[in-house]
Amino acid sequence: MQQKQMNIELRSKTGKGISRKLRSADMVPGVVYGKGMDPMAVSINYRELQAAMAGEGGQNNLITLVGGGSLDQSMAIVADLQRDAVKGTYKHVDLHRVNMSEKLRVTVPVVLKGTAIGVKEGGLLDFAHHELHVECLPGNIPDHIEIDVTSLAVAHSIHVGEIALPEGVKVLDNPKTPVVSVLGRVKEEAEAAAEAAEA
Q: What are the entry keywords?
């Protein structure tokens, strides 16, 4: 988990017109919410928001908020980020103020390590789930969860319940769900034959 710092400004005015003006000034409109507080409208410099999400942790980076009155020195993560459908630029951000002693739920990417022995034997790697839902303290949010697939043979899978997790991290997905598998040639040929028959 990476820790970042980001300046924020409180804003009293909201609405589409105000949001457009902020974006034209290279600012991103947003809101900060959390347990025991009313949502607070804020604005953030576009480049600062980019920097706060830089690195492998992305939206799960733990951010120290600077400024914003009572929000100053609060810890937060990016809960939701809206982007322009065409340009991909940031339109609005939701920041979740967290309590460092209370667990929260986040989505963490899965990273595969090594080359499966089944692939070397001609099988096809099927990476079915690229993310896992986990619960942990904010300070324990992993940048990613690594799975070593080196010994994964043809017609075998690694399921959620078999993954080694970092200390203090609990996975919420069904433990029987296959995350990565190696499909064999026989299965591929059967699927191809079935598709040909349907056609």
A: Ribonucleoprotein, Ribosomal protein, RNA-binding, rRNA-binding
- Three-state DSSP state, 47: helix
What does the pLDDT read at residue 197? 62
This prediction has a pTM of 0.83
**Pairing relation of β-strands 170-171 and 131-136?**
antiparallel
Q: Check residue 52 and give left, alpha or beta (phi > 0: left; psi -120 to 50: alpha).
A: alpha
Cβ-contact 40, 31 below 8 angstroms = yes
Domains of the chain, with CATH numbers? Answer: 3-98 (2.40.240.10), 104-198 (2.170.120.20)
Strands 27-33 and 90-98, sheet pairing: parallel
**Contact by Cβ (8 Å): 154, 123:** yes
Phi and psi of 146, rounded to 5°? -95, 135
